[in-house]
Amino acid sequence: MEIKDNTFARQFETIVPEGLLSVEYSFQEKKIFLTKINKPEGYENQAIIDQVLKSIMDIIIEKKFKLMPIHPRIVLFIKKNPVYKELLPPGIRI
């Protein structure tokens, strides 16, 4: 699965058969805030969403950013995958 970083729209994007799946972000200092998941209407394939989030986590690790998960679905993903808790800034607990 290819994840595109659309810096103009400030979102990570991938194409699924139903349409565009994206995760919006914003930056502040060396932190990336994942703010919203946009999915095609009626799209509920959680396994694909998790796969997209894992790919985004790999990008965040590669770029050495700290993660601020804002969207509840992303917070739940971090709780289910505690290996990514190391991306959280000091003092942030979920």
UniProtKB/TrEMBL annotation:
Domain of life: Bacteria
Protein name stated in the entry: N-acetyltransferase
Native source organism of the sequence: Flavobacterium psychroterrae
Organism taxonomic ancestry: Bacteria, Pseudomonadati, Bacteroidota, Flavobacteriia, Flavobacteriales
